[in-house]
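User: Here's a chain of 118 residues. Predict its fold as tokens.
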Amino acid sequence: MRYLLLVYTDEALLPGLMTPEAFERFEELGRELASEGRLQMTAGLAPVSSATTVRVRAGRTIVTDGPFAETREQLGGFSLALFDSEEAALAHAARVPTAVAGCVEVRPVLQRGDIGAG
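Assistant: Prediction complete.
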């Protein structure tokens, strides 16, 4: 099953967290998933200050600077990968270097027909 791992961290903490060793651990995790044929995509995101949010209300498009909501932790990157089980995805998420100061949300990716079925 495909899982999306969403990496959240307080951007103010990143300068202290993203040491050369942490960068290497991120790269190592990506290489591991790629060598096993499980990595579909991974990327870091630009700072939340570069985000723009789009909403449509009553037929009007509203564009605002910044994220949808103010939070302590910002989405900083993601990986889309294949795992045999949720437990395997969770074990991989626990190895993400910035999880020590933020979190990694693990979410199954729906397949066609998953919504509204049943």
